Amino acid sequence: MGIVTIDSPPVNALEQQVLDELDQIVTNMPKDVDVVIVTGAGGKAFVAGADIKDFPELKKETGIELVKKGQRIFDKIAALEQPVIAAIDGFALGGGLELALACDIRIASKRSKVGFPEVNLGILPGYGGTQRLPRLIGPGKAKQLIFSGDPLSAEEAKQAGILEEVTEDSPMEKAKELAETIAKRAPLGVRKAKKAIDEGLNTTLEEGLHIEAVAFGELCDTEDKNEGVAAFFEKRQPNFSRK
Protein backbone atom coordinates (compact mmCIF):
# COMPACT_ATOMS: atom_id res chain seq x y z
CA MET A 1 0.00 0.00 0.00
CA GLY A 2 1.01 3.63 -0.39
CA ILE A 3 0.60 6.11 2.47
CA VAL A 4 0.38 9.85 1.78
CA THR A 5 0.75 11.96 4.95
CA ILE A 6 -0.05 15.68 5.03
CA ASP A 7 2.49 17.10 7.49
CA SER A 8 2.16 20.88 7.77
CA PRO A 9 2.07 21.92 11.45
CA PRO A 10 0.15 22.93 13.39
CA VAL A 11 -3.07 21.94 11.59
CA ASN A 12 -1.89 20.58 8.22
CA ALA A 13 -3.13 23.57 6.23
CA LEU A 14 -3.05 23.19 2.46
CA GLU A 15 -0.31 25.70 1.78
CA GLN A 16 0.82 26.06 -1.82
CA GLN A 17 3.96 24.04 -1.18
CA VAL A 18 1.87 21.26 0.35
CA LEU A 19 -0.40 21.24 -2.69
CA ASP A 20 2.61 21.12 -5.02
CA GLU A 21 4.12 18.19 -3.12
CA LEU A 22 0.79 16.38 -3.07
CA ASP A 23 0.50 16.91 -6.82
CA GLN A 24 3.93 15.36 -7.39
CA ILE A 25 3.20 12.37 -5.18
CA VAL A 26 -0.12 11.61 -6.87
CA THR A 27 1.28 12.14 -10.36
CA ASN A 28 4.10 9.69 -9.66
CA MET A 29 2.11 7.08 -7.74
CA PRO A 30 3.66 3.68 -8.61
CA LYS A 31 1.40 1.39 -10.63
CA ASP A 32 2.17 -1.57 -8.36
CA VAL A 33 0.66 0.17 -5.32
CA ASP A 34 -2.70 -1.55 -4.83
CA VAL A 35 -4.28 0.81 -2.27
CA VAL A 36 -3.50 4.41 -1.26
CA ILE A 37 -4.16 5.84 2.22
CA VAL A 38 -4.27 9.61 2.76
CA THR A 39 -3.87 10.89 6.32
CA GLY A 40 -2.68 13.86 8.36
CA ALA A 41 0.23 14.04 10.79
CA GLY A 42 0.14 15.19 14.39
CA GLY A 43 -3.20 13.85 15.60
CA LYS A 44 -4.86 17.29 15.81
CA ALA A 45 -6.17 17.55 12.29
CA PHE A 46 -6.49 15.47 9.13
CA VAL A 47 -6.34 18.72 7.18
CA ALA A 48 -7.88 21.88 8.66
CA GLY A 49 -8.35 23.54 5.26
CA ALA A 50 -6.68 25.93 2.87
CA ASP A 51 -4.09 28.41 4.06
CA ILE A 52 -6.11 31.53 4.95
CA LYS A 53 -2.95 33.64 4.69
CA ASP A 54 -3.44 33.38 0.92
CA PHE A 55 -6.88 35.02 1.02
CA PRO A 56 -6.46 38.76 1.77
CA GLU A 57 -4.86 39.57 -1.58
CA LEU A 58 -7.18 37.42 -3.69
CA LYS A 59 -9.19 39.02 -6.50
CA LYS A 60 -11.49 37.37 -9.03
CA GLU A 61 -8.82 36.05 -11.40
CA THR A 62 -6.38 34.96 -8.70
CA GLY A 63 -9.23 33.35 -6.78
CA ILE A 64 -10.22 31.30 -9.81
CA GLU A 65 -6.58 30.37 -10.37
CA LEU A 66 -6.19 29.27 -6.73
CA VAL A 67 -9.20 26.96 -6.66
CA LYS A 68 -8.57 25.57 -10.16
CA LYS A 69 -5.19 24.38 -8.91
CA GLY A 70 -6.71 22.60 -5.93
CA GLN A 71 -9.49 21.12 -8.06
CA ARG A 72 -6.97 19.77 -10.54
CA ILE A 73 -4.92 18.05 -7.83
CA PHE A 74 -7.96 16.60 -6.07
CA ASP A 75 -9.28 15.39 -9.44
CA LYS A 76 -6.01 13.49 -9.86
CA ILE A 77 -6.58 11.80 -6.52
CA ALA A 78 -10.13 10.85 -7.44
CA ALA A 79 -8.92 9.55 -10.82
CA LEU A 80 -6.23 7.24 -9.41
CA GLU A 81 -6.77 3.67 -10.59
CA GLN A 82 -6.21 2.41 -7.06
CA PRO A 83 -8.78 2.70 -4.26
CA VAL A 84 -7.97 5.67 -2.01
CA ILE A 85 -8.86 5.63 1.69
CA ALA A 86 -8.93 8.76 3.86
CA ALA A 87 -7.86 8.06 7.47
CA ILE A 88 -9.23 11.06 9.40
CA ASP A 89 -8.16 11.83 12.96
CA GLY A 90 -9.19 15.28 14.13
CA PHE A 91 -10.53 18.17 12.06
CA ALA A 92 -11.33 17.80 8.36
CA LEU A 93 -12.55 21.27 7.48
CA GLY A 94 -12.87 23.16 4.21
CA GLY A 95 -10.16 21.93 1.88
CA GLY A 96 -9.50 19.07 4.27
CA LEU A 97 -13.03 17.72 3.83
CA GLU A 98 -12.72 18.31 0.09
CA LEU A 99 -9.55 16.22 0.09
CA ALA A 100 -11.40 13.45 1.95
CA LEU A 101 -14.28 13.66 -0.53
CA ALA A 102 -11.82 13.08 -3.39
CA CYS A 103 -10.98 9.73 -1.78
CA ASP A 104 -13.09 6.61 -2.30
CA ILE A 105 -13.62 5.66 1.35
CA ARG A 106 -13.47 7.73 4.53
CA ILE A 107 -12.69 6.31 7.99
CA ALA A 108 -12.57 8.67 10.98
CA SER A 109 -11.91 8.60 14.70
CA LYS A 110 -14.88 9.27 16.96
CA ARG A 111 -13.42 12.61 18.04
CA SER A 112 -13.14 13.93 14.48
CA LYS A 113 -15.22 16.78 13.09
CA VAL A 114 -15.94 17.63 9.46
CA GLY A 115 -17.42 20.70 7.86
CA PHE A 116 -17.30 23.58 5.43
CA PRO A 117 -16.77 26.87 7.33
CA GLU A 118 -16.09 28.90 4.18
CA VAL A 119 -19.28 31.00 4.38
CA ASN A 120 -17.92 32.45 7.65
CA LEU A 121 -15.11 33.93 5.55
CA GLY A 122 -17.39 35.25 2.81
CA ILE A 123 -16.42 32.55 0.32
CA LEU A 124 -17.54 29.01 -0.59
CA PRO A 125 -15.88 25.59 -0.81
CA GLY A 126 -13.70 25.81 -3.92
CA TYR A 127 -11.78 22.55 -4.17
CA GLY A 128 -14.80 20.53 -5.26
CA GLY A 129 -16.96 20.68 -2.15
CA THR A 130 -20.06 22.15 -3.80
CA GLN A 131 -19.90 19.38 -6.42
CA ARG A 132 -18.70 16.21 -4.68
CA LEU A 133 -20.72 16.54 -1.46
CA PRO A 134 -24.17 16.82 -3.15
CA ARG A 135 -23.31 13.84 -5.34
CA LEU A 136 -22.42 11.85 -2.24
CA ILE A 137 -25.22 12.75 0.20
CA GLY A 138 -27.82 14.62 -1.88
CA PRO A 139 -28.31 18.35 -2.45
CA GLY A 140 -30.49 19.12 0.58
CA LYS A 141 -28.11 17.80 3.24
CA ALA A 142 -25.12 19.25 1.37
CA LYS A 143 -26.75 22.68 1.25
CA GLN A 144 -27.52 22.50 4.96
CA LEU A 145 -23.87 21.80 5.77
CA ILE A 146 -22.42 24.35 3.33
CA PHE A 147 -24.93 27.17 4.00
CA SER A 148 -24.70 26.92 7.80
CA GLY A 149 -20.93 26.52 8.00
CA ASP A 150 -21.47 24.38 11.10
CA PRO A 151 -19.28 21.29 11.57
CA LEU A 152 -20.61 17.78 12.11
CA SER A 153 -19.37 15.28 14.64
CA ALA A 154 -17.98 12.04 13.24
CA GLU A 155 -21.19 10.20 14.15
CA GLU A 156 -23.34 12.86 12.50
CA ALA A 157 -21.15 12.73 9.39
CA LYS A 158 -21.52 8.95 9.24
CA GLN A 159 -25.28 9.21 9.54
CA ALA A 160 -25.28 11.78 6.73
CA GLY A 161 -23.28 9.43 4.50
CA ILE A 162 -20.04 11.41 4.46
CA LEU A 163 -18.06 8.82 6.42
CA GLU A 164 -18.11 5.08 5.86
CA GLU A 165 -16.81 4.16 9.31
CA VAL A 166 -16.24 5.82 12.70
CA THR A 167 -13.89 4.11 15.12
CA GLU A 168 -12.76 4.57 18.70
CA ASP A 169 -9.49 2.96 17.64
CA SER A 170 -6.89 4.47 15.34
CA PRO A 171 -8.46 5.30 11.95
CA MET A 172 -5.05 4.68 10.40
CA GLU A 173 -5.00 1.11 11.70
CA LYS A 174 -8.55 0.58 10.45
CA ALA A 175 -7.56 1.99 7.07
CA LYS A 176 -4.55 -0.32 6.92
CA GLU A 177 -6.71 -3.33 7.76
CA LEU A 178 -9.10 -2.46 4.95
CA ALA A 179 -6.21 -1.75 2.57
CA GLU A 180 -4.67 -5.15 3.35
CA THR A 181 -7.99 -6.85 2.65
CA ILE A 182 -8.40 -5.04 -0.67
CA ALA A 183 -4.78 -5.77 -1.63
CA LYS A 184 -5.49 -9.52 -1.38
CA ARG A 185 -8.13 -9.24 -4.09
CA ALA A 186 -7.47 -9.19 -7.81
CA PRO A 187 -5.97 -5.72 -8.47
CA LEU A 188 -7.34 -5.54 -12.01
CA GLY A 189 -10.81 -6.47 -10.80
CA VAL A 190 -10.74 -3.85 -8.06
CA ARG A 191 -9.53 -1.13 -10.42
CA LYS A 192 -12.09 -1.99 -13.08
CA ALA A 193 -14.81 -1.98 -10.42
CA LYS A 194 -13.76 1.50 -9.27
CA LYS A 195 -13.75 2.77 -12.84
CA ALA A 196 -17.17 1.25 -13.57
CA ILE A 197 -18.69 2.81 -10.43
CA ASP A 198 -17.20 6.25 -11.03
CA GLU A 199 -18.02 6.39 -14.73
CA GLY A 200 -21.47 4.89 -14.22
CA LEU A 201 -22.43 7.53 -11.66
CA ASN A 202 -21.89 10.22 -14.30
CA THR A 203 -24.20 8.69 -16.87
CA THR A 204 -27.56 6.92 -17.24
CA LEU A 205 -28.29 3.51 -15.74
CA GLU A 206 -28.42 2.01 -19.23
CA GLU A 207 -25.01 3.41 -20.16
CA GLY A 208 -23.64 2.44 -16.76
CA LEU A 209 -24.73 -1.16 -17.27
CA HIS A 210 -22.90 -1.16 -20.60
CA ILE A 211 -19.75 0.15 -18.90
CA GLU A 212 -20.07 -2.66 -16.36
CA ALA A 213 -20.54 -5.32 -19.04
CA VAL A 214 -17.51 -4.15 -21.03
CA ALA A 215 -15.36 -4.10 -17.89
CA PHE A 216 -16.48 -7.63 -17.03
CA GLY A 217 -15.67 -8.83 -20.53
CA GLU A 218 -12.22 -7.24 -20.48
CA LEU A 219 -11.44 -8.96 -17.18
CA CYS A 220 -12.42 -12.30 -18.71
CA ASP A 221 -9.35 -12.03 -20.96
CA THR A 222 -6.92 -11.63 -18.04
CA GLU A 223 -4.59 -14.14 -16.43
CA ASP A 224 -5.89 -12.99 -13.06
CA LYS A 225 -9.40 -14.17 -13.93
CA ASN A 226 -8.04 -17.59 -14.82
CA GLU A 227 -5.95 -17.69 -11.64
CA GLY A 228 -8.88 -16.62 -9.47
CA VAL A 229 -11.20 -19.26 -10.89
CA ALA A 230 -8.51 -21.97 -10.68
CA ALA A 231 -7.76 -21.07 -7.05
CA PHE A 232 -11.46 -21.30 -6.22
CA PHE A 233 -11.78 -24.82 -7.60
CA GLU A 234 -8.47 -25.89 -6.07
CA LYS A 235 -9.46 -24.44 -2.67
CA ARG A 236 -6.33 -22.29 -2.31
CA GLN A 237 -5.43 -18.62 -2.12
CA PRO A 238 -5.02 -17.02 -5.56
CA ASN A 239 -1.70 -15.56 -6.65
CA PHE A 240 -2.62 -12.58 -8.79
CA SER A 241 -0.10 -11.15 -11.26
CA ARG A 242 -1.88 -7.98 -12.46
CA LYS A 243 -2.02 -9.46 -15.97
Automatic annotation (TrEMBL):
UniProtKB keywords: Lyase
InterPro entries listed in its UniProt record: ClpP/crotonase-like_dom_sf (IPR029045), Enoyl-CoA_hyd/isom_CS (IPR018376), Enoyl-CoA_hydra/iso (IPR001753), Enoyl-CoA_hydra_C (IPR014748)
GO molecular function: hydro-lyase activity
GO biological process terms held by the UniProt record: fatty acid beta-oxidation
Secretion signal, residue range per the UniProt entry: none
Pfam families given in the database record: ECH_1
PROSITE patterns, per database record: ENOYL_COA_HYDRATASE
SUPFAM superfamilies with a match to the protein in the record: ClpP/crotonase (SSF52096)
Similarity comment: family membership: Belongs to the enoyl-CoA hydratase/isomerase family.
UniProt-recorded name of the protein: Enoyl-CoA hydratase
Organism of this sequence: Pueribacillus theae
